[in-house]
Automatic annotation (TrEMBL), chain B:
InterPro entries: MetI-like, MetI-like_sf. CDD domains: TM_PBP2 (cd06261). This is Sugar ABC transporter permease. The chain crosses the membrane at residues 7-32, 73-92, 104-125, 137-158, 179-201, 237-260. It comes from Gordoniibacillus kamchatkensis. Keywords: Cell membrane, Membrane, Transmembrane, Transmembrane helix, Transport.
Length: 313, 274
């Protein structure tokens, strides 16, 4: 065996690397920390610190000093806030199940046929990628009670003209229709991907055992599609809780604040915007965003519970 | 064997075609309306009377529409490039490097996803005003330069990059950054493509933060410009102009979408399932 001289370069390198391979590892760690330095500063400065700042702000009065619950008391006593909260929950209840239902039905229909699959998928997904601002204005024109496209269309079936966005009792539904129109394609696309990931052999095996199409759907498709549906439901609910752009552009301007008529379309985020950037009470608006944060947190925790549930097949 | 007529398929094709009418109608209505004159909006008529380009000429001559278009483009491109670069760099580091704090940093980044943008816009506004960023491109762009969601996505994709490739790069004496750039990134190009589309569209259509961040007419992005232009007129909505603006905002996106539809659609379903 060749001996290594104690002072030779090989020995030095062995001594450096071998007994505590630490230096190599710490060099690698240094690389990692270098790569992460700017992103970590970003997350601390642009996400984490502002989150804390928003919470802190909500406990201060506009132009006042000292910790106070004033904003929260004012908020919970304000009928507008409760209006916004109820409307937001209505948006969730109306838009999410509709999007899911339309999405799944579209996915099942497109999955069932053989020709033009790609074309249908492309066309139905189109509304999702187009600008919500532009699209809202187009719908606003179509909803016009006097000479809009929709009332003209309904007239063909002898349905009387509706007031749509001008009516406090119909406006929220009218806004919801725009949201459903724009988002159902996403639910369809994700459901299609979910359906395609179910192995065909399951269906063949079940058919050999004499299962009916009804049984195939409820025993195979539905349970295996469940994780996809949970994902869609959760992203849908979180998105609906944050509804803003459509409401602002369908109802804002021409003499009224967004959220009208008579606050009938007001959502939490529109309320935040009006309070923070029209009335310039940023502290009060922060308190409202804290409520929104808590709502989203509840949905996220529910999602974790749902996803961790094990399915028995 | 004779081919049987598939009755169910015919019914499905019929229903899907009716659905396409519902999807397409607003777009058709938008384009048709953009060729009308303002008085034509006071009565219901399907087709424009004389197919005038008046609305388009007015927009180019009397509004800052072109400027807003350019603003949106600059913002969307810069933010997308930054988002892709940092998402893959952080994703790669978290997936392939072992170091103290890896897990904590990952959880920390993920946890920021739970905070809605709406909670952050007020502090961002305060910050942007205090630092004198108001009415700069930077004030529109800074919140989106890195996204927790895309970091998470890229980390998932980076996990499938073979360790041997990275080790080979080290043996060849490449720098760690060189390995990331020349060895790792080429392995995840399809994920990057999908993410690029998502990021670009998200920024191109972004509304809430830009409408808060910008005060000058020159710095508006396209959605903000359109929205504020449309609501600004107290004397009644100028529908022909609004529809022409919407058409120019939407139609190029539709064309690009149809050219790259396969990649876009597959990319989005890929990211939705990860």
């Amino acid at each position: 065996m060749k001996r290594v001289a104690p002072e030779s370069p090989q020995m030095r390198s062995l001594l450096r690397d071998w007994p505590n391979r630490g230096s190599l590892e710490s060099k690698r760690a240094l690389t990692a920390y270098t790569f992460l330095a700017i992103p970590m500063l970003f997350f601390l400065g642009i996400r984490i610190a502002p989150t804390i700042y928003a919470f802190a702000m909500s406990f201060f009065k506009k132009n006042g000093s000292g910790f106070t619950l004033y904003n929260y008391q004012k908020m919970f006593a304000s009928p507008d806030f409760w209006h916004a909260l109820t409307n937001t929950l209505l948006y969730v209840i109306i838009t999410v199940p509709s999007q899911l239902a339309i999405g799944i039905v579209l996915a099942l229909m497109i999955g069932r046929i053989e020709r033009f699959k790609g074309l249908y998928r492309t066309i139905y997904f189109l509304p999702y990628i187009t600008s919500a601002v532009a699209i809202s204005w187009v719908w606003r024109l179509m909803y016009d009670p006097n000479n809009g496209f929709i009332n003209a269309f309904l007239e063909l079936f002898h349905i009387p003209a509706q007031q749509w966005l001008k009516s406090p009792s119909e406006a929220l539904v009218a806004v919801s229709i725009v949201i459903i129109w724009q988002s159902s394609g996403y639910a369809a696309l994700i459901s299609m991907a979910g359906l395609e990931s179910i192995p065909k052999s399951y269906y063949e095996a079940a058919r050999i055992d004499g299962a009916s199409p009804w049984q195939l759907f409820w025993r195979i498709t539905w349970p295996l599609l469940n994780p996809t549906l949970v994902f869609l439901a959760v992203t849908g609910v979180i998105g609906a809780l944050q509804t803003f752009t459509q409401i602002a552009n369908l109802t804002g301007g021409s003499g009224g604040q967004a959220g009208g008529p008579l606050n009938s379309t007001l959502s939490i985020v529109v309320y935040v915007y009006n309070q923070g950037f029209n009335n310039f009470n940023l502290q009060f608006a922060s308190a409202v965003t804290v409520v929104l944060f808590i709502l989203i947190l509840i949905v996220t925790i529910l999602q974790m519970k749902l996803i961790n549930r094990t399915y028995d097949y | 064997m004779r081919k049987r007529v598939d009755g169910a398929a015919i019914v499905i094709h019929f229903v899907l075609c009716v659905g396409i009418l519902v999807v397409a109608m607003p777009f058709v209505w938008m384009v048709l309306s953009s060729f009308k004159t303002l008085p034509e909006f006071y009565t219901f008529k399907f087709l424009p009377k004389s197919w005038t380009l008046e609305a388009y000429q007015h927009i180019f001559a009397h509004t800052k529409y072109v400027r807003w278009y350019g603003n949106s483009f600059i913002v969307a491109i810069v933010v997308t490039v930054s988002e892709l670069f940092f998402a893959s760099l952080v994703g790669y580091t978290l997936a392939k490097h072992r170091f103290k704090g890896n897990k904590i940093i990952f959880i920390l980044i993920l946890s920021t996803m739970m905070v809605p943008t709406e909670l952050l816009v007020i502090p961002w506004y305060v910050m942007s005003t205090a630092l004198g960023w108001t009415d700069t491109y930077w004030s529109i762009m800074f919140p989106g330069m890195i996204q927790a969601y895309s970091v998470f996505l890229m980390r998932q994709f980076m996990l499938s990059v073979p360790d041997d490739l990275i080790a080979a790069g080290r043996i060849d004496g490449m720098s760690e950054f060189g390995i990331f750039l020349k060895v790792v990134l080429p392995q995840v190009t399809s994920a990057l493509g999908a993410l690029a589309i998502l990021a670009f569209l998200g920024n191109w259509n972004a509304y809430l933060w830009p409408v808060i961040a910008i005060t000058s007419e020159n710095m508006r992005t396209l959605p903000v410009g359109m929205s504020l232009f449309s609501t600004a007129d107290a004397g009644g909505l100028q529908w022909n102009l609004i529809m022409a603006m919407s058409t120019m905002a939407v139609v190029p996106i539709i064309i690009v979408y149809f050219i790259f539809q396969r990649r876009i659609v597959e990319g989005i379903s890929l990211t939705g399932l990860k």
